[in-house]
Design brief:
Layout (H helix, E strand, L loop, with lengths): L14 H6 L29 E3 L8 H17 L2 E5 L5 H15 L3 H5 L10 E3 L14 E8 L16 H26 L6 H5 L6 E9 L11 E4 L5 E5 L7 E5 L2 E4 L7 E5 L1 H6 L9 E3 L7 E9 L5 E2 L17 E2 H11 L5 H8 L2
Parallel strand pairs: 1-2
Antiparallel strand pairs: 2-10, 3-4, 4-5, 5-12, 6-11, 7-10, 7-12, 8-9, 8-11, 13-14
The protein binds N-oxalylglycine (OGA) and nickel (II) ion.
N-oxalylglycine (OGA) binds next to strand 5, strand 11 and strand 12.
Protein name: Fe2OG dioxygenase domain-containing protein
GO biological process, one term: regulation of defense response to fungus
Family: Belongs to the iron/ascorbate-dependent oxidoreductase family.
Length: 357
């Protein structure tokens, strides 16, 4: 399978260029089968939980415990929550998002210097998966490695705008700290030692990647998706959505719920590797992105992942006779080959590894 990941199976088309060309009908490649199209059904009055992190590291034991419980029930019931009072500067969040918007608004030739390949996916891309003839999503993206340090190569990051590399470094450092705090809280809430998840992810060598998504305006938003349904293959994701435009939908009881972004919040979600380590006490949840005809949308997805060559398996503490291990050990490198080959396909992969044990 590795051999298929050398190059894209067909010429790459930048969705932003299509959008800016002024076409009124989207090419057939982007038209989803009717069952996958956004229904635009009446929204129910529910939203993912909002968790205030202010007391997460309070010395008051009761307050701390309450926050851990809120995180735990959000992870169990939704696999998603919006985190407020997370300690990251709102100004830094805004500047980082805006510098990426500027990047995507640079001339095509400048962005093309960073064009990516499916070998590592690093750089400027427009598809996920290498299946020839696949139906594509209405988005472009930029993908980069932040951790472990030996995989970080700022020369592969955008050279323009001039402040982009510094902002990525500064933003990354802050988000990594927040990930550490959340992993602690999740470990405690699972009844594990507070450093369990961080250590199982490689300790200092934990993985972290950033994917910046750009969803251009779409003349026929009811026929396509910005990002097809998937669960995140990694450990945990911290998403910084655009401030004034919704797009993310989360699957709950078979229905799609559109997330209304709370100002300055991070949207946190459980990935497949935490599902595996928690032996499915926490579940990664399917989500997707819808597009619109009015406004481009930018989002920053920061993925906190296991170091790629470690074996990931259910925590021994969470395995018993009554609740046997649901997954066999697998490295994250092996695991993510699936999405890198086939593109986003709901939760088929983690379910597949369950049925094959
Ligand atoms: C992702 C993702 C959601 C969004 O990048 O994995 O789910 O709103 N993004 O862009
Ligand atoms: Ni995702």
């Amino acid at each position: 399978m590795m051999n298929c990941l050398q190059s894209w199976p067909e010429p790459v088309v930048r969705v932003q260029s299509l959008s800016e060309s002024g076409i009124q009908a989207i090419p057939e490649r982007y038209i989803k089968p009717p069952s996958d199209r956004p229904g635009f059904e009446k929204q129910e009055h529910v939203d993912i939980p909002v968790v205030d992190l202010k007391n997460l590291f309070s010395h008051d034991h009761t307050l701390h415990e309450e926050t851990v419980k809120l995180i735990s029930s959000a992870c169990k019931e939704w696999g998603f929550f919006q985190a407020v009072n997370h300690g990251i500067s709102h100004e830094l969040m805004k500047r980082t998002r805006e510098v990426w918007r500027e990047f995507f608004n640079l001339p095509l030739e400048v962005k093309q210097e960073h064009a990516n390949a499916p070998t590592t996916y690093e750089g400027y891309g427009s598809r996920l998966g290498v299946q020839k003839g696949a139906i594509l999503d209405w988005s472009d993206y930029f993908f980069l490695h932040y951790l472990p340090v030996y995989l970080r190569n700022p020369n592969k990051w955008p050279s323009l705008p001039l402040s982009c590399r510094d902002l990525i470094s500064e933003y990354g450092a802050e988000v990594v700290k927040l990930c550490g705090r959340l992993l602690k809280a999740m470990s405690i809430s699972l009844g594990l030692k507070e450093d369990y998840l961080q250590n199982a992810f490689g300790g200092e060598d934990i993985g972290a990647c950033l994917r910046v998504n750009f969803y251009p305006k779409c003349p026929q938003p009811d026929l396509t998706l910005g990002l097809s349904s998937h669960s995140d293959p990694g450990g945990m994701t911290l998403l910084l959505p655009d401030h004034d435009i919704a797009g993310l939908q989360v699957r709950k009881n078979g229905k799609w719920i559109t997330v209304k972004p709370v100002p300055n919040a991070f949207i946190v979600n459980v990935g497949d590797q935490i599902q595996v380590m928690s032996n499915a006490i926490y579940k990664s949840v399917e989500h997707r992105v819808i597009v619109n005809s009015v406004k481009d949308r930018v989002s920053l997805a920061f993925f906190c992942n296991p170091k790629s060559d470690l074996l990931i398996e259910p925590a021994k503490e969470l395995v018993s006779e009554d609740r046997p291990a649901l997954y066999s050990p697998m490295t994250f490198d092996e695991y993510r080959l699936y999405i890198r080959t086939y593109g986003p396909c709901g939760k088929t992969q983690v379910e597949f590894s369950e049925s094959n044990r």
